[in-house]
Design a protein that fits this description.
Layout: H1 10-14, H2 24-42, H3 46-49, H4 55-74, H5 86-105, H6 109-114, H7 117-133, H8 140-168, H9 175-180, H10 190-210, H11 213-233, H12 236-252, H13 257-277, H14 279-282, H15 296-314, H16 325-328, H17 349-374, H18 380-392, H19 402-415, H20 425-445, H21 451-461, H22 468-481, H23 486-495, H24 501-514, H25 521-531, H26 535-548, H27 561-564, H28 567-584, H29 590-605, H30 611-617, H31 621-628, E1 641-644, H32 651-654, E2 669-672, H33 691-702
Antiparallel strand pairs: 1-2
Helix pairs in contact: 2-4, 4-7, 4-20, 5-7, 5-17, 7-19, 8-10, 8-11, 10-11, 10-12, 10-18, 12-13, 12-18, 15-17, 18-19, 21-22, 22-23, 23-24, 24-25, 25-26, 26-28, 26-33, 28-29, 29-30, 30-31
């Protein structure tokens, strides 16, 4: 008789199916889920393609299959669901409740419920995998081997696709290109490539050590491919995680101390070769130059970490909900020194958990780590893999991509201990009831945020002046759903610039407070003030545009008569702003150097200084060579230029809806004909100034005393 079955006739019913073997329906569900997961993982770029039809169908199947499988097992009258020990079971239930409660409490409930699905599916897969592994205790070792063989086959497919697509770049470039280009395949980002490599490397490495004959050769090739994926990713966090993985493996390896020291020396040498061979990882060892331009990646990561910290502080108990970052990050963007205008995720698992789930999420992760450490000897390779991946997760968040959630779930299932005493039969039913309730909540209430589609449709309509009223109404409706959208405020400003200048000014100010270094926002603000008959405040705004994006000093917009009349006042305001910036910035560092250089460059453009004065303040080798040499300098006159509008190619990804076309802003960018990609280095890049300082200048000029 099966453990936990009750009542007359239970023995007869148990004979209708061999204990521990899935029903045909459950087997079919598992197969469909595996196919869906393979499709959205291997179809490069999988992590974004899964948001586009028909790949979104495979995405839905991959997420629904574990939940449906769990429901089939939980309500199986012949065999109750086998649950892990109390620690793991309580954590799984608590995590389900936490994720759901966080989404329900979020201001963006519909979207966060929908994007809770990958995490919830991962928990379901953990429970379902544990149940299958421990269906028959005598079969557990064999089933563990079957699971690892299946995972190895999937991993090899990932490696072949990744390396194959990366090598295809050889035909578009050369060997140098291969080293310089980071491998984003098959998920679409090199950090994902590194994460996959770290999940695969320990298993293949152990197999290469323990296997014999052709099996060892195959495992060794797969391990080398895993290392190649990590190398080609150029991930600095991946390299650090690899070092931690190597140290952990070395300590766990039971060999004499002398041999261990020799192995450590050899591995250390190999690690140095690994790091120095890739230009990006080699840069980790270079000494920092205080006067050098900041590393863009470091600026963005620092900004995301600060934003995530502040997000969690504002909702410290349950956070903002899973997948809420693109909706919430704009609230905090103005307080950051720089970085991207908006982001999909915060590139750190602890930071993301704090922002999405508050202190409860961080606590749940800590409990997971403690349980994994407690049970690490139950499956040494699974424990080692989780340890290495935990280090890499300090530098990236990847659990919103199904293949990573699935991998962590399977590794945890291998580690989790069975209960010392069989749980009551009702535990299976209660687990199924919880899973069913959450599944219905997500299916009924979960929805993609409609605002991005409304914004994209509005900007498409706005291309036809006859449909401007429809576009305005759509953008206003979008802002009613979420007022923290720079794209809607910025483009509403341009639509209302002539018909309603006061409203346009309000929208430009809101856009500036969401993304202070947005190109064109201060120019639009100045035009709105000019249309209101306020030339002084208009010159202030134009000066801010020049300060934020100095290349605007050469724009053909200055040939427009109404704008040209404000050039002297703008230059006077700009000189004042530049001095205030120099007083506010530290005396050393990149921004201070840019501020000094920009003052000299502005004077040279206004013909108040010669090229030697600019060369004396130039803070890059290119600028010093140009202004200090004899080469002819470009003529930045108000002559002919080129006009274009900026498209936002990443917007559909941020919306997690690739059916949305990349929107195009309504601002007509006017670039001087003398400006090319080869001469842009002359001007400080847009956003060189810390955002809070820009807003301080804007607010000072917006105050009543001014």
């Amino acid at each position: 008789m099966l453990a936990g079955t009750e009542g007359t006739g239970s023995h007869a019913r148990s004979m209708t199916r061999r204990p521990g073997f899935p029903s045909p329906l459950l087997a079919a569900t598992g197969l469909l889920g595996a196919i869906g997961l393979a499709l959205i993982t291997l179809a490069s770029p999988g992590a974004t393609r899964m948001y586009a039809w028909p790949w979104s169908l495979a995405y839905a199947v991959a997420l629904a299959a574990p939940v449906l499988g769990l429901l089939l097992r939980a309500f199986d009258r012949l065999e109750p669901l086998r649950l892990p020990d109390r620690g793991w079971s309580n954590l799984a239930v608590a995590a389900i409740l936490l994720i759901t409660a966080s989404a329900l409490a979020s201001p963006h409930r519909a979207a966060t419920l929908l994007f809770s699905a990958p995490l919830l599916a991962g928990i379901a897969l953990f429970l379902l995998s544990f149940d299958w592994l421990h269906a028959v205790s005598a079969e557990t070792p064999r089933r563990m081997q079957q699971l690892w063989r299946a995972a190895a086959g999937f991993a090899v497919a990932i490696e072949l696709v990744s390396v194959g697509l990366w090598l295809a770049g050889y035909f578009e470039g050369n060997a140098g290109f291969l080293l310089a280009a980071r491998n984003p395949h098959p998920l679409g980002h090199s950090n994902y490539t590194a994460g996959l490599a770290l999940l695969m490397l320990p298993g293949f490495g152990a197999a290469a050590f323990h296997a014999r004959g052709s099996a060892r050769a195959g495992a060794l090739v797969a391990a080398v491919l895993s290392g190649l994926l990590l190398f080609t990713s150029g991930s600095r966090g991946g390299v650090i995680a690899l070092g931690a993985l190597g140290v952990s493996a070395l300590f766990a390896w039971r060999i004499p101390a002398r041999q261990k020291a020799l192995v450590a020396l050899a591995c250390g040498g190999a690690a140095l070769v690994f790091v120095f061979a890739n230009p990006r990882t080699r840069a980790m060892l270079a000494s920092a130059d205080a006067g050098a331009p900041p590393n863009i990646s470091n600026v963005q990561r620092s900004a995301m970490a600060l934003a995530g910290w502040r997000q969690g502080l504002d909702r410290p108990l349950l956070g903002w909900g899973a997948g809420s970052t693109p909706l919430v990050y704009p609230r905090y963007r103005a307080g950051l020194d720089g970085g991207a205008e908006n982001v999909l995720q915060l590139h750190s698992l602890p930071v993301q958990l704090w922002a999405d789930f508050g202190g409860a999420g961080v606590l749940a992760a800590a409990v997971f780590g403690l349980l994994a450490w407690r049970d690490r000897r139950r499956h040494a390779i699974a424990g080692l893999t989780l340890a290495g991946y935990a280090v890499s997760s300090l530098f990236d968040w990847q659990l919103d991509v199904p293949v990573f959630a699935a991998a962590i779930a399977l590794l945890a299932a291998c580690l989790a201990a069975p209960p010392t005493t069989p749980p009551p039969t009702r535990a299976s039913t209660l687990t199924g009831g919880l899973a069913l309730g959450v599944f219905i909540l997500v299916a009924v209430l979960g929805r993609i945020d409609p605002a991005p589609e409304m914004n994209a449709r509005a900007l498409e309509l706005a291309r036809d002046p006859a449909k401007a009223n429809e576009a305005i109404a759509l953008l206003q409706d979008s802002l009613a759903l979420n007022p923290h959208q720079e794209i809607a405020h910025f483009n509403l400003g341009w639509l209302l610039l002539v018909r309603d200048p006061p409203a346009a000014e309000r929208h430009f100010r809101e856009a500036a407070r969401l993304v202070p270094d947005k190109g064109g926002v201060y120019f639009g603000l100045g035009l709105a003030r000019l249309n209101r008959g306020q030339p002084g405040p208009a010159a202030d705004a134009f000066a801010l545009e020049c300060l934020n994006d100095p290349v605007f000093l050469t724009s053909p917009w200055w040939s427009e008569p109404n704008v040209a009349r404000l050039r002297p006042a703008t230059e006077a305001r700009l000189a004042e702003f530049q001095q205030r910036v120099r007083d506010a910035l530290p005396a050393t560092g990149w921004p201070a150097g840019e501020a000094r250089y920009l003052q000299a460059l502005t004077a040279w453009l206004a013909r108040r200084a010669d090229r030697q004065a600019v060369a004396a303040t130039a803070n890059t080798a290119e600028r010093r060579a140009l202004f200090g040499g004899a080469a002819q300098l470009p003529e930045f006159t108000a002559g002919p230029g080129r006009s274009f509008r900026r498209t936002r190619p990443g917007y559909p990804v941020l919306a997690r809806n690739l059916e949305v076309a990349p929107p195009m802003d309504l601002f007509d960018v006017q670039m001087n004909a003398a400006l090319t990609e080869q001469t842009l280095f002359i001007f400080p890049a847009k956003g060189w100034l810390p955002s809070p300082l820009l807003l301080a200048l804007l607010d000072a000029r917006d105050s009543p005393k001014n």
